[in-house]
Amino acid sequence: MQAVEAKGFKLPIVGLGTWALRGRECARIVEQAIRLGYRHIDTAQMYDNEREVGEGVRAAGKRDEVMVCTKIQPTMLAPTDLDRSVKESLAKLRLDAIDLLLIHWPNPRVPLAETLGAMAKLKRDGYTKQIGVSNFTVALLDQANKVTTEPLVCNQIEYHPFLDQDKVVAACRRHGMAVVAYSPIARGGAIANQVLERIGAAHKKTTAQVCLRWLTQQGVVVIPRTSRVERLSENLGNLDFDLTDEEMREIAGLARRSGRIVDWSWSPKWD
């Protein structure tokens, strides 16, 4: 599996997102993904499926090869809450350590230095191997990198051809952080796009594969979610072809202001 390196840490470039996967189905999909070659599994406290994700990882029998990421929910970012919740996550996952621990969403009511300080201590104490952030804007990335005492290896953001993320991607690059794209197929919105269909036909690829390749060809890590085993192989199939420079530009031209899908009352002021 290809990987993106950030601050000495390697993130497999295609991972499995597990948002909305539950119960036995979640464990089955995680296990199958790892058996097919996935080495990056993404979950979160907010998804309420860490137990099942851990079951799937253990059942696949390749723990040492798999990077497991979980994310702290925004109501748990005060140091005491964070410490307790992360130890609960680790108990649910039943793993030796979390490979990558992220702030899921920023919380302006908790000083960022306190949150990152607590995460740094968990890293030093061996509960997590690396730390990072998710849904951080340019200003938040600048602030986080200024106050953290441990390297921040990535920023996980919504990113697909229909959303211009050039500013925050540039900020990640400036700070030496990897970009991890969630909802990389725009929650299925890419499937019927005519531009992606035409480009896909030229390469004998699906629109989803073209969408994912547009991201991975930029060195962006993707974590598409699927509940269908046949889609797991299809998503990995984005790595065996290249888009032309003209095709990359044409796909980038699909971005629009209204392209954001994931936006909550607690979201930061987006760039």
Structural class by secondary-structure content: alpha/beta
List how many beta strands DSSP finds. Answer: 10
Beginning-to-end CA distance, first to last residue: 32 Å
Specify the number of helices.
Answer: 10
Mean pLDDT, all residues: 97
Biggest β-sheet description: 8 strands, parallel
Query: Roughly what percent helix?
Result: 25-40%
Structural features, described:
This protein is an alpha/beta fold. The chain has one domain (about 5-185, about 220-225): TIM Barrel (Alpha-Beta Barrel), CATH 3.20.20.100. It has ten helices and ten strands. It has helices at about 25-35, 50-60, 80-95, 110-125, 140-145, 165-175, 195-205, 205-215, 230-235, 245-250, and strands at about 5, 10, 15, 40, 65-70, 100-105, 130-135, 150-160, 180, 220. An eight-stranded parallel β-sheet has the order 3-4-5-6-7-8-9-10. It has a two-stranded antiparallel sheet with strand order 1-2. Strand 7, helix 5 (about 140-145) and strand 8 form a beta-alpha-beta unit. The longest helix is centred in the first third of the chain and has 15 residues, at about 80-95. It is globular and about 55 Å long. The two termini are about 30 Å apart. About 45% of the residues are buried.
